[in-house]
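Worked example

This section walks through a single chain of length 460. The input is the sequence exactly as stored; nothing has been trimmed or padded.
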Amino acid sequence: MVRSRFLRELATLVALAAVYFVAGKLGLRLAYVNASATPVWPCTGIALAAFLVLGYRAWPAILAGAFLVNFATAGTLATSLGIAVGNTLEGVVGCYLVNRFAAGRHAFEHAQDIFKFAFLVGILSTTVSATIGVSTLALAGFAPWSFYGSIWSTWWLGDAVGAVVVTPLVLLWWENPRLHWTRRQLIELAFLFAGLFFACWVVFGGRFHSALKNYPLEFLCVPFLIWAAFSFGRRRAATAIAFLAAMATWGTTHGFGPFSRESQNTSLLLLQAFVGVMAITTMVLAAEVTEHKRADEHVHHLAVTDPLTGLANYRRLLDALDSEIKRYERTPRTFALVLLDLDGLKKINDTYGHLVGSEAICRLGNILRIHCRAIDTAARYGGDEFVLVLPETDSPAALRVADRIAERLSTDGDEPPVTVSTGIAVYPHDGKTIDELLSAADHVLYRKKASAKRKLPQST
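Given that input, the structure is written out below as tokens.
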């Protein structure tokens, strides 16, 4: 088992180093101011995501990947090792700061944490790699000291944007890789990315380059990022940002788009500043929208839930009954209603106190929650009365369910012992409206209670 775990971790680190190496080689193809300094460096985001997911034990893979990508590009063994140490320390420092001050792997759930992430990683931790890397190159004679500032700014901005674009993309897909999309969502998502692709093609694709050369049309992409944030949440918003960054980088390097200048490095720096601002803005908006949706869902849950038992409340009960009646009109399948009433709750309250009485109510609520089907609706009708709605159920089946619940409550082993009386009504035989059904079940229940009282003296 230990060996198998070691092999899995080793394979993970090797794969991480390989991904880092490939991404680094692609990024260094856009190095214009110096062979080792590029304004496009997704490796920072990969490294930071790896540290946040795997912990600090990911450092050998980052160090190895950074060393190999630099050694295979330019410089010596010593300069490659120095740059690799800077890249690794950058990820370690960024991981520590995010874990300490920005909620760690959950940094993209709240807007304030995203701003913290952008400051701590995009501004602070990326200075580590830029400073160590450029200083190493200058000391080794691979970069003139007079160009230190321009090389450093290129290095830093590339790392910063790589972090704010790639890290959320990796983390959000890592924590939830499954695709649970409805047909409507798939269609809307297809329109979203088709529109974003067309906008990027107009702005950065060169199709209209002769007519729209260098026109400031980058704002055409913004509505699609807002659309992604509002309709699809953080994960697909991060994907849209990465899609925009890839297309915009391709177009800018080919001399297309509003950021194209005579200097390729300047063009990419301008583009990266735009992408970085769009990434932060879009992720903040997506986080706010997601948080508001969760708050709305929580409020709706409270509106239809009984606070004591956690079951459906009277409002949710009426909705369930109304839905079953409408369903019967489409597919004539009966449904049953079971009314349950705790026996002697007032006596329990008077003898043991209202807290024990509330616990007795919760005991019945727990039994209903545990032993009902997913399609059933268990609701607290009011006080000590409960209602169970059983779709596609006839009278004999509903009676078996009611007897089973009554038996399990009476034998649950808790003190004081509690029993329940039940009444059953079936739609449409016992009533064609909600009031008629509840009234029919209520009559059955109280006939049983009256019958039990008449038998009580005989049993004693």
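What to look for: The CA atoms of residues 341 and 385 lie 5 Å apart.
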